[in-house]
């Protein structure tokens, strides 16, 4: 097992705290951090050992990260275990996940406008602004991804 420097350990912990703050598990954030910097694909046992998390947390986290496209399952010749690595197409997965969330937030704001009715103009204005914001961000996301991919070429 690799030695993890204090700097890398702090980075891993920061990812964990960030994921915890946005409603995901800290273990999931820590796994993503490790898989982003690991030189080789990692098994659940590797994740448990390096990150000091339970096997259940590792299993649940890999399912979440795989479902969102942040990581992918790979095979290692001669080994029957499942291994995981950061997805090479993670940027697209992040944009795709964000687009879905932006669409959902805009729909919620639109539903809110209908729900508050005509009499509450203050609420209608706030919700309309929220809807415009999320629709604008959502519209720009594919363009931003194209810009980033162009810079990488």
Task: Explain what you see.
The protein has helices at residues 6-21, 26-37, 44-51, 55-67, 90-116, 121-152; strands at 42-43, 71-76, 79-86. It folds into two domains: 6-86, Winged helix-like DNA-binding domain superfamily/Winged helix DNA-binding domain (Arc Repressor Mutant, subunit A), CATH 1.10.10.10; 90-152. It is elongated. The chain has six helices and three strands, in the order H-H-E-H-H-E-E-H-H. By secondary structure, it is mainly alpha-helical. InterPro entries: HTH-GbsR_regulator (IPR052362), HTH_MarR-typ (IPR000835), WH-like_DNA-bd_sf (IPR036388), WH_DNA-bd_sf (IPR036390). Residues 26-81 form the HTH marR-type domain. This is HTH marR-type domain-containing protein. Keywords: DNA-binding, Transcription, Transcription regulation.
Average pLDDT taken over every residue: 92
Rg, rounded, reads 20 Å
CATH fold name of the largest domain: Arc Repressor Mutant, subunit A
Residue share in β-strands = 5-15%
User: How do the helices and strands follow one another from N- to C-terminus?
Assistant: HHEHHEEHH
Strand arrangement, major sheet: 1-3-2
Question: Cα distance, first to last residue?
Answer: 34 Å
Name of the CATH class of the largest domain: Mainly Alpha
Kindly report the name of the CATH homologous superfamily of the largest domain. Answer: Winged helix-like DNA-binding domain superfamily/Winged helix DNA-binding domain
CATH architecture term of the largest domain: Orthogonal Bundle
Number of strands: 3
């Amino acid at each position: 097992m690799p030695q993890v420097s204090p700097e890398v350990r702090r980075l891993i912990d920061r990812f964990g705290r960030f994921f915890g703050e946005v409603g995901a598990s800290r273990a999931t954030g820590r796994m993503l951090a490790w898989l982003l910097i690991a030189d080789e694909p990692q098994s659940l046992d590797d994740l448990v050992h390096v990150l000091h998390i339970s096997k259940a947390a590792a299993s649940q986290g890999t399912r979440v990260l795989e479902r969102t496209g942040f990581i992918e399952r790979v095979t290692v010749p001669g080994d029957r275990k499942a291994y995981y690595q950061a997805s090479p197409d993670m940027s697209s997965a992040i944009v795709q996940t964000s687009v879905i969330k932006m669409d959902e937030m805009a729909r919620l704001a639109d539903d809110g406008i209908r729900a508050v009715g005509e009499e509450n103009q203050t609420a209608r204005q706030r919700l309309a602004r929220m809807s415009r914001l999320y629709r604008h961000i959502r519209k720009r996301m594919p363009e931003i991804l194209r810009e980033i991919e162009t810079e990488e070429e």
